[in-house]
Amino acid sequence: MTAARYEVVQTDAQTGGVVTTLPVASITYTETLNAAGSASVSIPLTAPEADPTTLYPGASGFAILRDGEPVWGGLLWTAAADLSTGVLTLNASGYHSYYAGRVLHDGYNRKADQAHLLRDWYELCNAENGIATDTSRLTTTGRIRSRTWTQYELKNIAEAVQELAEDAGGFNFRYVPYWTDNGRIGNRVLKADQGENVIPFALVHRENCNVTQVSYDSAAMATRVYAVGADNGNGTKLVGIADNEDLAARMPTKHMVQTFSDVKTTETLLDKSAAIRDAGREPVAIPSLTLYPGAFSPTDFVPGDSGAVQADYGYVALLSDFVITERKTDVDVNGTESTSLSLANKELFTSAD
Questions:
Q1: How far apart, in whole angstroms, are the C-alpha atoms of residue 162 and residue 139?
Q2: 79 vs 88: CA distance, rounded Å
Q3: What pTM does this model have?
Q4: What distance separates the 2 farthest-apart alpha carbons in the chain?
Q5: CA distance 108 to 117
Q6: Would you put residue 173 in left (φ > 0), alpha (ψ -120 to 50) or beta?
Q7: Contacts of 189 (CB under 8 A, 6+ apart)
Q8: Strand 155-156 to strand 103-104: parallel, antiparallel, or no bridges (unpaired)?
Q9: pLDDT one-digit tens code per residue, 238-280
Q10: CA distances from 314 to 214, 215, 270, 341 (A)
């Protein structure tokens, strides 16, 4: 199998315009479920492209191309120059990291479909010196949600998006880079129902992958969940409660309390408690695996997609559907790829509306 051809292009963070192609020696990029993800590339410290007047954290972006097509994009946030080795390491986070630095400075109050709320927030940023995130593929679901914040709360937009996604009946979201018609690197936000996309093949230990580790964690398990909201102003707080009756028959009572101090409706708190309850029905199995070289393309795997994983080795007896929570790809100077996946039980991501 011919090695893929990788390139990294430096972009203008505001417009997506291509500034130059960077002379990279190594690439690592990660896509993480409902989070920013990260990338790190190294270039010669003395290369002409290592220009501090055009390549600098906070204002520069870059996109990773695989055989000419963008597979990762984001903003450069830090750089480390190692004068002893002559290497400049550029560290970026995906487009969602930008929204961690934007707030709803005029407040917000709306009850509408999930997609309409998302579009409001992104387009507010686009109109005020943003990064031009495309929202054209945010389709409505019929799931109506309510969100209210005052201007004094300065609600962080990245947090607002993540909290909306985590509600019962929530969704998975991701950002994809793409070539625009005028040769720029655009970025587009997509969302999908949890558990919607299924990988059409199984990952089998010692056949097409190497399951390197499986951990089991009961921290999220709870027989009753309390989602505590904003203060009513009279010394009481709103609370949403959800019970795991089946689990209560199998384990001693265990409570979980999570606080959402800016949530002002019981309806929203009930959504959140239900989502936490569904995530705590059983111990979380967390496999990590490395794909066999040449067996797949890393683009075959998208965080949020689900598929069967099979491993039978002593205590480990896996034959179930898991959701990809992270995909990490390392590329060496020859273009050789090594891709590893982190996964979690599918049940964690399929809560009812």
A1: 17
A2: 7
A3: 0.86
A4: 68
A5: 10
A6: beta
A7: 95, 118, 122, 133, 134, 135, 137, 138, 173, 174, 175
A8: antiparallel
A9: 999 999 999 989 999 999 999 998 898 999 999 899 988 988 8
A10: 12, 14, 40, 22
